[in-house]
Structures are given as structure tokens and as C-alpha cells.
Amino acid sequence: MLFQIYGDNTMWQLLGWILVFAGLILMNELARRSKTGGIFCFLILPAVLTVYFVAIYVGAAMGADWALHNQTYLHMTSWFHYAKLYAATAGCIGFMMIKYKWGIGKKEWFKLFPFLIVAINILIAVVSDFESGIRGMMAMAEYGDRWWLSSENVWLYGGWWNWVNGISGLINIFCMTGWLGIYVSKDKKDMLWPDMTWCFILAYDLWNFEYTYNNLPTHAWYCGLALLLAPTVANALWNKGGWIQNRANTLALWCMFAQVFPLFQDASRFTTIPVLYADGFMDAATRPTVANPTMQGVVAVIALIANIACMAMIIKRAKQQKKNPYTHEIFTDQKDFKLAMERAER
């Protein structure tokens, strides 16, 4: 088992997961199906939240009680969360520029933007994974265990799994193929990347889940499982070729929600922690006495194998087809690619 889903709160934990999964599906549909929805979600809402975040930190610097006790100020102080929120939002805006042909979104060279923004998002997580691995080593030298307290007062357990998963992330960047194979759907609802088929999506989901499991353990039930499955299910069932847009939309929206309402995950009946916390709880004021990192190691190895297998498949196909897999599409024979291209505007 990956998470501690048992006891009196089990039904609340499952309900919370369903609410997050369904909410992300619905919000993604709102954002992708209408220009007004996309503008509200990724231009207006982030602008308002930016003013809110700045006000919190200005207020805290001035000693204002409301700011010093604000949920966001107390629980979401890590550089990672802000970097991820704005990087994901930048991706959503760039994808809308391509989809609606705004400004440079009409230019052929701007088709490289999706690859670049996804690579940046992956690198942000890789750096965070490596940071946790280093902090774990430092804790081992100082305390004799691998527990270290993050800036958000969450006990993390850094080890070799962080290094393995960081390597998986680096490989995953080069598992993105057909960088220029970006299209707009005929109905103008989606930016499509047809060559990003199930091969990449599976490798990415395994890597990213392990990232959250390692570094956002108290959030992984939601930002690991629900958040990753929402765009994957949409791509599998009704939005072929639109996975990367689905992923950016749901990620940005989730980051906004989590940044404003962190206690939903951290201190409510919906809170779900992984089996890592063998003491049965996570309290910043109490250093854990035992750890169960088995699943961190297992998932890290699975993610690495998946990404190596995906990379090997890409190399094999590139050689067989005599193509550069980054300037040309190489999964053109797969059903997912063909279905996505049927939706594409030519």
C-alpha cells in the first residue's frame, strides 16, 4: 500500500480524492472549451492571486497579524510551489497563444514553446528531487537518519530514490519527440501534440508520481494520483492528442487551489499521508522516530525502468525510420497518433 487509507477518515479521504479528480476534469473542460474560460482561468485568476500573494508577504513583513497567520504564508512558503504555479500558468498561456493564434503564437518557431516549457517544469522538479537527496545525506551525517524538515514544516526522507528519480526526470525530457509536430484542433478547443502518445505519458506519470511521493508526501494522494490521472483520463477517452494541454491546465489550476487552501491537504479530514510515516502521523514539532521508505524505492526503480524503456523505443524507432526523433514525428503508426491527427487542422 502507498498511502495510509484506513480508519475513521477512510471515506473522507476517498471522497476528497473523487472531488479533486472530478473538479480538475470539470475545470479543464471549462478552460479548454471556451476562450472566455481560458482567459479567466489563466490570465485573470493568476493576476488576482499574484496581488493576493504580494499583499500577504508585504503584510507579513510589516507584522500584520492577518498575514502572519495566513494559510498560504504558513504552509506554502517553498520556492518550488511558486515556481511550479507560474511555470504551469505560463505554459497554459503559451498554449492558448498557439491555439488561438495570438501574437507570436502564429509563428512556426513558437511551436518549440511546448517542449521548452515542459522541459523547464520537469527540471524544476528534478532540482527539488536532488535537493531532497542532498538534505537527506546531510541529515544522516548530523542525526543518523534521513529526515529533514522542509521550509513548509513537512518532514521529508531523502535518499537514493531521489537521485534515481531525478535521473528519470532528465531522461523523460528527451522522451518528448516531434517537437515541431504541434497542431490546433479543427474546433479550436485544443492544442494538440500527437506524437506525445501513451509511451511518453506513462513514463511521465510514473516519474512525476514518484516526485510527489518523495517531495510532497503529504500532498501526493491528490497532486500525485488525482492530478496526474485527470489529464491522462481525458486524453485516453475524449481528448486525443491534448494530453499536454490537459496537464498544464489541471496543474496550474491545482497549484492555485493548493496555494490558497493548503489546509485541505495538510490539516483536515481529507488529509492523507503515505506509508513513509511509520509513526502514523506527520507533525512538524515531532521528529519522526521511524520511516518506511520501501515504496519510495520501489516506485523510483519502476519509473526509471519505464523512462529507459521509452527512451530505448524512441532510439529504435528513430533508427528504423531514419529520422531525427525531435524534428520529426516517430509514433505515426500508433492508434493514438492517428486519432489525434484526425482532429487536427491542416
Model description:
This protein is an all-alpha fold and 346 residues long. It has one domain. It contains 13 helices and four strands. Strands 1-2 form a two-stranded antiparallel ribbon. Strand 3 and strand 4 form a beta hairpin. The longest helix is centred in the middle third of the chain and has 31 residues. The radius of gyration is 20 Å and the shape is globular. 45% of the residues are buried. InterPro entries: DUF5692.
Count of DSSP H/I helices: 13
Described by strand count, sense and barrel closure, the largest sheet is: 2 strands, antiparallel
The secondary-structure element order is HHHHHHEEHEEHHHHHH
Q: Strand arrangement, largest sheet?
A: 1-2
What is the 3D shape? globular
- Beta percentage is under 5%
Q: How many discrete domains?
A: 1
The total beta strand count reads 4
| End-to-end CA span | 47 Å
Oligomer: single chain
How confident is the prediction overall: mean pLDDT? 96
